[in-house]
Design brief:
Protein name: Short chain dehydrogenase
Number of strands: 7
Shape: globular
Organism: Shewanella atlantica
InterPro entries: NAD(P)-bd_dom_sf, SDR_DHRS6-like, SDR_fam
Number of domains: 1
Strand order of the largest sheet: 3-2-1-4-5-6-7
Structural class: alpha/beta
Helix content: 25-40%
Radius of gyration: 16 Å
Number of helices: 6
Strand content: 15-25%
Distance between the termini: 26 Å
Keywords: Oxidoreductase
CATH topology: Rossmann fold
CATH superfamily: NAD(P)-binding Rossmann-like Domain
GO molecular function, one term: oxidoreductase activity
Order of helices and strands: EHEEHEHEHEHHE
Length: 199
């Protein structure tokens, strides 16, 4: 399969790349590097990316920016980042990219556990994650040519270590990547795949 991986330079993205490497042709797209560049917060950048890459069998997005900020300190810019990048950036991957996915292919987006298990400081992230999951569920009802799903990762052990958190209750990037592979190769459609539930 020819698979486009967006956010392939991130912790989860790297693990997904490793998991899907082998017989597949993988194309990486990141903000600063990769086979092609893309800014999820810029719809024109998304269009340019697809024009460069052309037709693919699957797309995996392991990208999307949003900030951890206490609610009292949440600025308009913090909310706008979550809405314009984490949410609309991935919504626009479908809106722009659906014609670039070969018939019967798949698109896999990324939300996160904070949609269901919020924590202090996660207001805009939880908002974007929950909205994305609802979008996927509804949009899938109108898609016949491709499968659309969203992965909800738990906290990734490697990220927890970088943040100075106890990684014991996290899930490794490699184990998280297995769920992305399931979405790419499986038959599910319009689903939110909770990584913790697949361990």
């Amino acid at each position: 399969m020819k698979i486009l991986i967006i956010g392939a330079s991130g912790t989860i993205g790297k693990a997904v790349y490793e998991r899907l490497s082998g017989d597949n042709e993988l194309i990486t797209a990141n903000y600063n590097d990769g086979d092609v560049r893309v800014d999820l917060g810029d719809k024109d950048s998304i269009k340019k990316m697809f024009e460069q890459v052309g037709q693919v069998d699957a797309l995996v997005s392991a990208a999307g920016l949003a900030n951890f900020v206490p609610l009292d300190a949440h600025s308009d810019q913090d909310f706008e980042l979550a809405l314009n990048n984490k949410l609309m950036g991935q919504v626009n991957l479908l809106r722009v990219g659906r014609d670039y996915i070969n018939h019967g292919g798949s698109m896999t987006l990324t939300s996160g556990v904070l949609s269901r298990q919020p924590m202090p400081g996660s207001a805009s992230i939880s908002m974007a994650n929950g909205a994305l999951e609802s979008f996927v569920k509804a949009a899938a009802l109108e898609l016949e040519q491709l499968r659309l799903n969203v992965i909800a990762p738990a906290f990734v052990k490697e990220t927890m270590v970088m943040m100075g958190m106890d990684p014991d209750w996290g899930i490794s990037a490699a184990d998280t990547a297995k769920v992305y592979e399931l979405a790419v190769k499986g038959e599910m459609h319009g689903q939110t795949l909770d990584v913790a539930a697949h361990q």
